[in-house]
Amino acid sequence: MSAPKAGNLLSDRLDAELTPLLTVSGVSKAFGGLQALSGISLRVNAGEIFGLIGPNGAGKTTLFNALTGLYTIDRGEVRLGGLRLDGRKPHQVLQAGLARTFQNIRLFAEMTALENVLVGRHARTRSGVVGAVLRLPATRREEADSRAHAHALLQRVGIAQHAHRLARNLSYGDQRRLEIARALATEPTLLALDEPAAGMNPAERAALRELLLKLQADGVTLLLIEHDVKLVMGLCTRLAVLDYGVKIAEGTPDVVSRDPRVVAAYLGDEMP
Amino acid sequence: MKRTPPRWLAFSLLALGLALLPFLVDAGMGRSWVRLLDLALLYVILALGLNIVVGYAGLLDLGYVAFYALGAYVYAWLASPHFGLHLPFWAVLPLGAALAALFGVLLGAPTLRLRGDYLAIVTLGFGEIIRIFMNNLNAPVNITNGPQGINLIDPVRLGSFSLNQPHRLFGVTFTGIHLTYYLFLLFTLMVIFISMRLEDSRIGRAWVAIREDEIAAAATGINTRNLKLLAFAMGATFGGLAGGLFASFQGFISPESFNLMESIMILCMIVLGGMGHIPGVIFGAVVLTLLPEALRYTGDWQRDLFGHVYVDPADLRMLLFGVALVAVMLYRPAGLLPSTRRRREFADAKG
Known about the structure:
Chain A is of the alpha/beta class. Chain A has helices at about 5-10, 15, 60-65, 90-95, 115-120, 130-135, 135-155, 170-185, 200-215, 230-235, 255-260, 260-265; strands at about 20-30, 35-45, 50-55, 75-80, 85, 100, 190-195, 220-225, 240-245, 245-250. In chain B, helix 2 (about 30-55) packs across helix 11.
């Protein structure tokens, strides 16, 4: 199947065939007196590109942090496949198969692009101190595998030529791609991207769109926070809309964009 | 493949140089400088150990000397008349290193959430606690012999071959400090080797990732708790090893040798040489061990020039030392031999 069609196809079969991958039920989180998330529930199905939108301060990134173990949630439950994610530490959430990127890119600035991706392999490799010091055959094999894997990922996101440059010397768009490559190195079943297109020019956005569709075709489920409405509407199978820490709508882009509450809260009067 | 002959040649020359060094120094500068050379090697081990904690994992540890002290005291307890035990060095050194590693984890565990200056203060406290314990554990049961310290510690000895006596080997007379040099060199090379292998490994990359951005490291699947503890343990192991060697070398230890200044000195070696960069750390350790001794000559120079010592060399040492540190921080903030990560930009992919 061709990539652009995948979205429509998936939405058609939505209720009948798709299995839920990420299930968020009644998640709440307060910071002091501020209720950042109140009773958020949503379902991301395997294989879809799920968009999370909402005005600034709606709680999108807070939800990401809650899902990935950076925040402990006050109430509710998060499941990935059959696994409970809430209450786990970030590295355990990642081990379970949920990787993420950050809104304000968080690369290891003084490491090369290749090393950044190699760090992503950490969770899927095993060698310890003894293996590292003695360079045991198993360690050498693992290291070679990791390097091959990392090079392939850099190729896949289109920055293979920058493998040996320091992360901080990469262009903004390339840093975003590198962060995606690093997340992909952890072999996630669900990849959560926090505003991947922020600050990108139209050409970079188009390339990102292609990349995300390619990832979807390869079987990675995507959860996407994005402000670029055009990108979200064109790319996502389904959307959830947050406003003031409450989910106000969930559904296909068509349905969501016609929802009067969404129009009022987020899209404004400009949307048809 | 790499071009092997030049590398092989460079290694042989380096090995030859290191092997002849104590004799050259002995002939050219006198026996006391060979002793300093031994000490410099000890400090290289210490600095490389602290480099794992501070340079790689980015955890500012100001109590590192505690592990040095533990290694030294373990050696003294198990190989001196103090308890009447005289275990062989090959049993005692690993024990000291292991105990230091255990304490590294014990210190690391409660400080996992701390970073930067807060971590520095807690570790500084830990270093002082160990020293004060050593100073006071002479009553009601005499464990450390208090401020008097422990004397007559066994030298490194294998069978009847003892490192505190001269030996004639292959027609050359090796004095104790010459032999000690080779022993310390062996351990130093081992520590350098371990550091290099760790740096370029899954573990080393995880440490650097934690230093660069702890949250991103955790979100990239690194168990930051375990890896920080591992860094503390590895650093402490080297510290404990150096402590054992120091005890055997001096034959006498007391709590005075393990004060805060010592921790700061080791930290200075790393900062001055180039944090996280093995050649830089080695360079820093050697320079900072030898420099203060070299500055002693300024007393003689003053006497020759003016017929009188105007500035006590000891004072001058601290002054010049301070000026040197400030100058390095101003003009070479990354250290005298900083890590050349950028070189890799031009290197070709190997994997």
